[in-house]
Amino acid sequence: MSTIKKLLVIIFIIPISTGLFSQDVHFSQFRETPTLLNPGATALDRDVRIILNYKDQWRSVASPYKTFAFSGEMAIGKKKNKNSYLGIGVNVFSDKSGDSQMGLTVGSLNISAIIKTGENSKLGIGLMGGFGQRSVNYNQLRWENQYQNGNFESTNPTLEPNGSTNYTLPDAAAGIAWTYGKGEKYISANNGIQATIGVGAHHFGFQKYSFYKNTAEKLFTKFVAHANLAIGIPNSSFIIAPGLMYTLQGPSKEILVGSMFKYVMSESSKYTGNKKGSSIGIGIDYRLGDAAIATLLYEFSSFGIGVSYDVNVSKLKTVSSARGGFEIALRFVAPNPFNTNANKARI
Question: In CATH, what number is assigned to the domain containing residue 189?
Answer without folding.
Answer: 2.40.160.40
